[in-house]
Structures are given as structure tokens and as C-alpha cells.
Specification:
The protein is globular, with a radius of gyration of 13 Å. The protein is mainly beta. The chain has one helix and three strands. β1 and β2 form a beta hairpin. The longest helix is centred in the C-terminal third of the chain and has 4 residues.
Length: 55
């Protein structure tokens, strides 16, 4: 059984200039301190993945 590269399993929280938060794999970011819109295409927007838990 092949093991995954440890960098593929590492995730970080990043914010864009508007203050929106994203979860990204480290390997998908060119520069984690300056995240571009291109980098964010591979990330998950925390607001768009909200789960409705009911009333």
C-alpha cells in the first residue's frame, strides 16, 4: 500500500483581502503569505460549505 506524501495531508487556513477564510492544502499554495485568486481555486471557502443543522 502506497503512503501519501505528508505535504498532501497538511491543510492551512488562509484569508483573502476581503476577510473570507479558506481551507487549503499547503501544496496548492505558491506563497501562503500572499494567496492569489488562482491559489484559491483549489481551496474550500468555509462559508460555502456550511451545513444546515435545522432550527
Amino acid at each position: 500500500m502506497a503512503t501519501k506524501d505528508t505535504h498532501e495531508q497538511r491543510f492551512v487556513w488562509v484569508k483573502d483581502k476581503a476577510g473570507n477564510e479558506y481551507v487549503c492544502r499547503v501544496m496548492d499554495l505558491k506563497n501562503p503569505k500572499k494567496v492569489s485568486k488562482e491559489d484559491l481555486k483549489n481551496c474550500i471557502d468555509d462559508a460555502s460549505r456550511a451545513i444546515n443543522i435545522g432550527d
